[in-house]
Queue: 4 jobs
Job 1
Amino acid sequence: SMLNTLIEQNSKRNVCFVHAAINSNTHAMKEHVEAVDNEYEQVKAYTCYSAPTEKDLEMKNFDKEGFIEAEWLQTIIPTTEAEFYFCGPVPFMKHIN
């Protein structure tokens, strides 16, 4: 992934990694991204769950309920002077556009 490449290259870029999933049951690479987020100061990871489980709600293990929206991104990304990369299934990509 792009995140792994930046880490392997010892990049000092600030990285804002946003992952959207239905809930923790479908959250791919959760543990790996959390480990990278904890280990590398320049990485900040955020999670959006569109339909969090009761356990997700109880544990508060996500940052936003619902879908990724421009207004929310503006609150977590300090600048628009950056490179942005999006990937995902067709419905997600249509929503992002």
Job 2
Amino acid sequence: MCDFVCIIHAIYSLLSLLSLSLTGNDPIALLEKLLLIINYWSICIWNMSPSLDLPPKGGFNFDLCRRNAMLENKGLKAPTFLKTGTTIVGLVFQDGVILGADTRATEGPIVADKNCEKIHYMAPNIYCCGAGTAADTEAVTDMVSSQLQLHRYHTGRESRVVTALTLLKKHLFNYQGHVSAALVLGGVDITGPHLHTIYPHGSTDTLPFATMGSGSLAAMSVFESKYKENLSRDEGIKIVVEAICAGIFNDLGSGSNVDVCVITKGHKEYLRNHLLPNPRTYVNPKGFEFPKKTEVLLTKITPLKEKVEVIEGDAMEE
């Protein structure tokens, strides 16, 4: 109905313009009438044109999924996930929390790094062990560590372990397990020592001792047989080291050395390479020296340009 009214107005204005031009009235009136006609016609064209509003789009884009499915249907073999391996543990003792980890990083059947760090800094009183994809564990812990730092700046107070736990589990739950980070979080705050495990899907546990990673079953057997309440510092470190060694010697994805982190009220102690159960005994202690010079066995000189020889001919007769 609105379109029809606009058309009628435009036709009426056009007829009025023609009548004014025939009667020879004021040119200013003609110009005003012309502008009015242009306005009416623009409104009519806009109303009659199809709507330019686009339908709302969802928050996810599945173009790559459809592309991958098409490639698989055409015979392309999709790459498989690489197996990851780690043994990380933690326990609560009488003065705080002790965390432990091995130092082997793997790419499927390949040992990528023999002495990596799996105990990540979160806050001065909080540390976190990571198992799973190395990039995911480092990125997640770095992100939450920066958020805890900003929170300390804003409040002027020490970070609480439950704050780090909430940030980690919320982030992992949002990605439904696609962020491959299995974590053991430990720390001491104003409410005492705390130890938590966070699974890649976002579920958590609060336990007096915990293990994660491919060597977690071997480590858990040590904890279940030897853990007791109110352990001293030395007793706790001994059990943690034994649990990590159980994972190292019974799981191919775990290996190399043992790292330990002891967190108490107002103090932390990071024992890097606390134990070396697999030293490289086959390395020559004297090292290897190359000879000072190389003996010359053959010398051959090849010219780059051919030498031109000028041959003089007989003299010309006069």
Job 3
Amino acid sequence: EKISEILRNYPANDLLISGYTARAGTEESCIALSKERAAAVADFLVKLGVKDASCIFTQGFGSSFPIADNSTTEGMARNRRVEITIMN
């Protein structure tokens, strides 16, 4: 909910929400999960009244683009994430 306060400062900007996963299972399942993760965040932001759904775009990258080592529990947790980009 803290992020909603920041995003409200950009009422004219669209949002791009990108979902990611740790490497677990098939890449197909990782992509599906990452898309679901991004969509869940988008739905949450809409419910909070941050943006209309037509102003939020989502995408899922699966386990591509890890930010940490997937061989550790901590690394896998960091790779299970969403990133929100404020568009111009």
Job 4
Amino acid sequence: MKVSKKLFKPYLYLIFTLGTAISIYYVANIKSYAFPLVSIFFMMVTVISEVFDYDGEANDDELSFSLSISNIFFLILMFNAIIAITSNIIAFLIKGLKLKMEGRYNKILNIKTMFNISQTTIIIFITEFLSKKLDIDLISSRDILKLAILILIFDVLNRLIVSLVISFHSGKLFLEAFKFKMFILYNYYSIILTFALIFSYKGYGLLGATIVYLMYIPFQIVTFRYTKLKEKERELFKDRLSGAYNYRYLEALINSKISKKEQFAICMMDFNNLKYINDNFGHVTGNQLIEFFAKVVNSAIDRNTVFCRYGGDEFCLIHSDYDELKLFINSINELLKTRFIETNGTKIYTSVSSGLYKYTGEEVDFNFIIDKVDRAMYKSKHKKGSEIVEAF
């Protein structure tokens, strides 16, 4: 579903304005809040844990454990919202400095940092307001349920605000933040840790909550390092230009399936006009065409299909079901008839030649399969169309 990119800047300004207005409100009413020394200690602990928080992208089967929600709820319910907001501002600024030193940010206080500070400030304000309205004192089981629901509301609001800014920036509705498995796991850990912090502090004071942090912060650091390692592993198997898996991954995947005698279908696709595009429009346009093709495939691909770049303008698709893969290739061919890139006012269309092969458990190797599907693809290319040629 497409959304208007024109809403991107107004949406950013709205979030910035609301975040700033809320900050001014808290500063104006600062005298009505208490700041015990212990609250400053936990603010520092929160900053440390937030700085170590993971800021990358986790896979569906990975959980990068975060203390963010638990930190915020602990500070709001045990102290006040100003402590929670201040700790998050400091943490985001330190993160910005860290990323600038790594060369990932041009400056510390950039748009992303300002957006993160503003959105967190807004959600903290809403959380404090709702917690007062619900009168949560954590004495009865009903209050515990209220807190669990409030944590879920907090996370949904956070994901919604982020999803909207990505949607307005990209022009396409983005709902990746609402992956059910990750949502449930993340909030399960957040609820458990929030209860642990609050009840340990209520029962044993500074010592109790400190012990909980000493248990969980090392766990957070370990998951952070693990997820960063998995991220680097993914980068090794990704093609930078297209975003598809690379030759190394393709070879490893096929060899794995052969060793298990696991049936699969593979298709090799090759552009019919890339040389013409490179010669007449330049290699930059040729690269844009490769990126465009990858986006077309990724817009239609399902979780059971693996998309790889074999090399140059050759791509491979792997699926467990031969007929389903054939249907998918036909759908890609139809999409390419209606989509194009534009350069200097010229619309550039492309089409692909496709070869298809089915592995059924026979004693062959990677090179044999690639040779089969490659020959089939070139037969398709000689027919000068988008007809799929099947290898036998």
